[in-house]
Amino acid sequence: MKGGVLTKALILMVAVWAFLKLGMPLFTAPLPNSLIFLYLMLTLSGIVIFGTLSGASKDAFWGPISRFITGDNLGALQGARLAVLILFPLLIGWQTYGSTAPSDQPPAENRTIHPAPPGEYTGLANPVPNTPENIMTGKGLYAAFCSPCHGGNFDGKGVAAKGFNPPPANFADPTTIAMLQESYLFWRIKKGGVGLPIEGMPWKSAMPRWEVELPDEWIWKIIMGEYDGAHQKPRTWE
């Protein structure tokens, strides 16, 4: 592979970031940015260790960095060095100002993303047979009762979604219903936002209490329609 040690290191860092950020979601749930940052730091540590195993590799690795900082024999890169030395302190100052300046935005609320359901809902199995007819019925019920908020494409972008904060759940996202059991969805749909436990507060959920309007069989069919329409599968004990 042609190119200097730093060029190879940069290509490797970009490749690792692309795999973690863009490649991993194709096989599993998206990784949080904090975990991606950790893996990048581990990769950088490995690059530094490998680049300093011998005297020759150490000079090849640190030499360009040292020359860029000191300005020795840079030639045409003197302008780039001057730009970095000016922009880097400005960037740090802007970041510091942005993190300390007063804001008129309300403070963030700590939220329990998936509070535990009451014991009577834990591990419930869907009693409705998973047939094409029942799935189609569930999608029809979803379209009538759920799609105004959660969207016709099961992506949380219904016509009424913009009126809610936090927005309705995006079922097509592999980090939502794909991580939950059907019994959890049954509890959340049936009891709505008012049925959330105290330990789940503060919670601004506009989910209606659908048990007032929908029989249990309809709710189970809606759940099947949601999973099928979002191209997801419910989590199981197995």
CATH class of the largest domain: Mainly Alpha
> Can you count the helices?
8
- Shape field: elongated
Characterize the quaternary organization of these chains: single chain
What string, H for helix and E for strand, traces the elements in order?
Answer: HHHHHHHH
How does this model look, in words?
- The protein is mainly alpha-helical and 238 residues long.
- It has 2 domains: 5-100, no CATH class; 119-229, Cytochrome Bc1 Complex, Chain D, domain 2, CATH 1.10.760.10.
- It is built from 8 helices and no strands.
- It is elongated and about 80 Å long.
- The mean pLDDT is 85.
Descriptors for this entry?
238 residues, mainly alpha, Cytochrome Bc1 Complex, Chain D, domain 2, 2 domains, 8 helices, 50% helix, elongated
